[in-house]
Structure formats: structure tokens, C-alpha cells
């Protein structure tokens, strides 16, 4: 077993990683505001992550052979990540980045509910209470009393954010219960291969009009480059150091991502949430952290 990094440093690394992920989404919004195609952004991000995963797998001398019984699940994982990426980036285009990320970070709640329904875990009163606590916070973030007055674009953005969370929850389910035996670098490489292939096919078939459109301004190119580099660094940092970060204990720290996006979104995009929405966001993050650390 690899030697664990001292916990304060592990938490710092996870905070930096969450901030890099948030920066990736801020860069994506900048790229999209300058007419960058949705598919092109996901394609370039996927190619960057795939290249890094192939390098890691090669250095680890990992075998790329997939047991026959797991090939379907590996392919399904790639499709789900492709759909999750499309939904998340489509949500970011329509609503503030922080709101999108708060919606996506409800996936642990969906995972827990699915675990109860499928009989993988036994319900308990404390977790149920925390889930209700998160739902109250989410209602404040979404300002549910004014949903009927929101534009159709914002309503679609909220739905897409929740769909992104759903796809991510299913992805985590498959990883934990069907693909846990497959080496992480190999699983990630095949996942990114599928994502890249889906984006190329979708672009060639014009399933998303203008999906492969290049940026129309220098800022768009910087956004496109930024989202690829930041995602690649964060993804690789998390993957390489995960065995030493005691993720079973410290992974809830990654929920710092929406907090980082609030600051970055204000600085680079001029986005902000209403005070009550900020309170709701704090409730959501606190609830998710409580669930993550419960029983540690």
C-alpha cells in the first residue's frame, strides 16, 4: 500500500484540484461566449485527458485487455461520461457556473438513494435527514418560488445540470459495482477514447449544429486552451495521487469546486448569486460534506 500523504497536505491538494476543475468550467463558459462549439470543447478536453492517461498506463505497464464480461460496461461508462459532459457544458452556457456545479454535485445524494432502492445499503435516519437538508438548500439555490418566471433557457439549464448529476451518479455506480477490478488508468483511457469517438461522430453527423465550430476571438481560444489544460492537470493530479490521498476519508473535500467557481465566476465572468442562493449553496455543500465525512 502506498504511503499516505499527511492529511493537511492531502486536503490542500484536493482543494487545489477542485479549484482547477472549477477553472476548467469557467474557461469553458468563456470559450462558449466566443462561439466555440460544444463538441469541440469536449473533444479537445477528452484528447488531453486521454493522452495523459495513455502515458500513465504505459509507464505502469498496464494491460489494456478487458475481460469479456466487462466490455459492455466499459463502453457504457464512456457513453455516460460523454452525455454527462454534454449536459454539464450545455447547462453552463445557460445558467451561472456555480449553480450548474451545485446541481451536478448532488450526484452523491442520487447515488445514496439508488443504493437504498437497490438494497446495496440500509437507510438510516441521519443520512435521510441530511438528504432533506440538502434538498432545502437546493430549493434556495434554485429560488423555486420564481421558477415559473424564469426564462426557458434558464429552466433548461437547470434540467441539464440535474441530468449531468444523474449521469455522473450512474457512472459512479458502474465503476463501483461493475468495473472496480479494472485498473484505473486503463478504465479512464477507454472512457476517454469513447468520449472522443462520440464527439467526432456527433460532429461529423451534425447532431449538434455548430458543435465543432472554432472560437471567433482570441479570448475564445484562451478559454478552449484553458479548459483543456486545467481539466487535464486536475484529472491527472487526482488520478496519480488518489492512492496516497486517503480518498475514502478526504474525497468530500472535492465539493469545494462550487465554492471556487463562485469566486472565479465573479472575477472572470461577473456572475453572482443572490444572498439567499448563497445561503442555499452553503447548505448544499455542508450537507454533502456531512454525508461524506459521516462514519469516517
TrEMBL record:
Q: Name one GO cellular component term.
A: membrane
> Which key words are in the record?
Membrane, Transmembrane, Transmembrane helix
What are the transmembrane regions? 38-60, 72-92, 98-118, 125-144, 156-177, 189-208, 220-241, 276-293
Q: Where is the EamA domain?
A: 10-142, 156-291
InterPro entries attached here? EamA_dom, EmrE-like
What Gene3D superfamilies does this protein map onto?
Answer: 1.10.3730.20
Descriptive protein name: EamA domain-containing protein
Species of provenance: Bermanella marisrubri
Amino acid at each position: 500500500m502506498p504511503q499516505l500523504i499527511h492529511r493537511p497536505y492531502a486536503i490542500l491538494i484536493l482543494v487545489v484540484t477542485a479549484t482547477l476543475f472549477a477553472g476548467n468550467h469557467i474557461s469553458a463558459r468563456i470559450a462558449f461566449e466566443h462561439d466555440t462549439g460544444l463538441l469541440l470543447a469536449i473533444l479537445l478536453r477528452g484528447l488531453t485527458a486521454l493522452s495523459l492517461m495513455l502515458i500513465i498506463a504505459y509507464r505502469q505497464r498496464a494491460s489494456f485487455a478487458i475481460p469479456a464480461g466487462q466490455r459492455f460496461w466499459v463502453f457504457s461508462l464512456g457513453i455516460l461520461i460523454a452525455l454527462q459532459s454534454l449536459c454539464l457544458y450545455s447547462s453552463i452556457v445557460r445558467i451561472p457556473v456555480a449553480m450548474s456545479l451545485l446541481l451536478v454535485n448532488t450526484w452523491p445524494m442520487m447515488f445514496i438513494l439508488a443504493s437504498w432502492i437497490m438494497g446495496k445499503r440500509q437507510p438510516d435516519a441521519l443520512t435521510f435527514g441530511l438528504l432533506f437538508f440538502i434538498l432545502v438548500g437546493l430549493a434556495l439555490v434554485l429560488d423555486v418560488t420564481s421558477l415559473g418566471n424564469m426564462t426557458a433557457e434558464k429552466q433548461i439549464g437547470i434540467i441539464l445540470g440535474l441530468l449531468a448529476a444523474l449521469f455522473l451518479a450512474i457512472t459512479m455506480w458502474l465503476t463501483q459495482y461493475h468495473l472496480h477490478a479494472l485498473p484505473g488508468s486503463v478504465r479512464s483511457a477507454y472512457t476517454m477514447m469513447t468520449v472522443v469517438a462520440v464527439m467526432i461522430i456527433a460532429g461529423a453527423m451534425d447532431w449538434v449544429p455548430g458543435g465543432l465550430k472554432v472560437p471567433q476571438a482570441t479570448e475564445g481560444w484562451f478559454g478552449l486552451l484553458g479548459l483543456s489544460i486545467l481539466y487535464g492537470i486536475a484529472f491527472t493530479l487526482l488520478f496519480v495521487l488518489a492512492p496516497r490521498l486517503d480518498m475514502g476519508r478526504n474525497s468530500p473535500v472535492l465539493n469545494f469546486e462550487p465554492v471556487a467557481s463562485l469566486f472565479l465566476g465573479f472575477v472572470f465572468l461577473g456572475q453572482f448569486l443572490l444572498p439567499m442562493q448563497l445561503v442555499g449553496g452553503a447548505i448544499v455543500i455542508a450537507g454533502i460534506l456531512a454525508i461524506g465525512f459521516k462514519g469516517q
